[in-house]
Structures are given as structure tokens and as C-alpha cells.
Amino acid sequence: MSVARTIERKLTEQLHPQSVDVLDQSHQHAGHASAPPGGESHFHVEIVAEAFNNLNRVARQRLVYQILNDELAGPVHALSLNTLTPAEAMTKPYSNGGHNRK
Description:
Blueprint: H1 3-15, E1 19-24, E2 42-48, H2 57-67, H3 69-73, E3 78-84, H4 86-91
Parallel strand pairs: 2-3
Antiparallel strand pairs: 1-2
């Protein structure tokens, strides 16, 4: 299973999100010292979940990092997050990691 699929699976199983998008941005770091030849090291995750209700941004990130502890200790070098509650998702657009939504 790819690292991106593992990230998506773990977040889905633990947080039951309304939506989760995992973007592999490793190609943007190709050639950097920290980038492995096969990629799958740099990710952006956008997730909407009720589990984030009443949590500030730092607490939300800590929750995600806890769920992805094994990946962060292994193949994942960089992880950026956009964590929203369903109510926030209605008023704030996704950043989509700097990419246009299809």
C-alpha cells in the first residue's frame, strides 16, 4: 500500500472525516537531500472532521501527528495540514496544498 493510501486509511479509521485529501508533493522536492529517490516523503493533507470541534489548530495537528506517528517516524519527511471542522469548511475554502481543485 502506498504511503498516501496508508495516511488516508489511518485518518479515515480514526477520525471518520467528512472528507480527506492526501496530496503527495514529493515531486516538488526531487533532488533535495531529504528527498528519497522513490518519492512518497512530502505530503499535504486536507481533512474535515467533527473530531476537530472544540480543538485549536495545535491540538488538531497533534491529534493527526499521533495517528500518523509510525509514518512520521519512517517514510514521511514533511507533512503540512489543513484541518477544519464541518462548520469551518462551509465558510473557508480548501487551500488544496497550492493546487487547483478539479
